[in-house]
Amino acid sequence: AQKITQTQPGMFVQEKEAVTLDCTYDTSDQSYGLFWYKQPSSGEMIFLIYQGSYDEQNATEGRYSLNFQKARKSANLVISASQLGDSAMYFCAMREGGSYGNNRLAFGKGNQVVVIP
Amino acid sequence: NAGVMQNPRHLVRRRGQEARLRCSPMKGHSHVYWYRQLPEEGLKFMVYLQKENIIDESGMPKERFSAEFPKEGPSILRIQQVVRGDSAAYFCASSPPRAGEVEQFFGPGTRLTVL
Question: Quick one: what percent of chain A has pLDDT higher than 70?
């Protein structure tokens, strides 16, 4: 069963505008973690932001913020003031390890973002 | 503090050959995860190892794939008798020996091409 869903088609964003990337997840666990990673064309995976299921406030890291709606099981990433260097694939991921200490991640299929000047 | 290192970055093999992918975790990290990324897909978990132990191999194909993380040296992902469908990017991630939610740090990946 798919646990992370990212269904938006490729997105074009004007430089300096904000963009929201959708992510919904499925879990029956009470304690879980959600991650966003960026993968530029060079291929590496860059950690952006983390949200714990018990965190009461939405996570923020610089220009990245996470709109966490627990009841709807969504964890959307918001990138403010887009820059050309933000052009990349963005992956939402959730910790799915069943045993304590196993932090393996389940990834969505990604959102392609292209920032245009 | 060097990040997670993987080598080679690119590997070309002919069908039937063996592929060996290496991962050196960050200093102080004793937990290693391997993921595979097929073209146009997200990463898929393969195996989770701690030093000298395979903890979770639920994502590993039943045949031809094996992984190890010896007491000394890098973690190795071995693919025997490669087939075209093995062509993918293979990522290694490491995390510290700490319980609970911890971030995984990813290496740059090894791009395997099977001819």
Answer: 94
Which residue, A93, A114, A87, is CA-closest to A6? A93
Is residue A77 predicted with pLDDT exceeding 90? yes
Per CB-CB distance under 8 Å, the chain A contacts of B95 are: 103
Six-digit token string for A75? 């964890």
B95–A contact, CB cutoff 8 A: yes
User: What is the structure's pLDDT at A98?
Assistant: 60
Q: Does any CB of chain A come closer than 8 Å to the CB of residue B35?
A: yes
Integer-rounded Cα Rg, in Å, for chain B is: 13
- Whether the CB-CB separation of B58 and B68 falls below 8 Å is answered with no
Q: Which of A44, A99, A102 sits opposite B106 (nearest CB)?
A: A44
Query: Distance between CA atoms of A19 and B86, rounded to whole angstroms?
Result: 35
